Amino acid sequence: MEVMEAIKTRRSIRKYKTTPVDDKTIEVVLEAARWAPSWKNTQCRRFIVVRDDKIKSQLANTLRGTKEGVANPASNAIRTAPVVIVVCAELGKSGYNLGKIATDKGDLWYMFDVALATQNLTLAAHSVGLGTVHVGLFDAKRVTDIMEIPPGFCVVEMTPLGYPDEEPEVRPRKELSEIVFYDKYGSR
Ligand SMILES: Cc1cc2nc3c(=O)[nH]c(=O)nc-3n(C[C@H](O)[C@H](O)[C@H](O)COP(=O)(O)O)c2cc1C
Question: Quick check: helix, strand or coil at residue 165?
Answer without folding.
Answer: coil
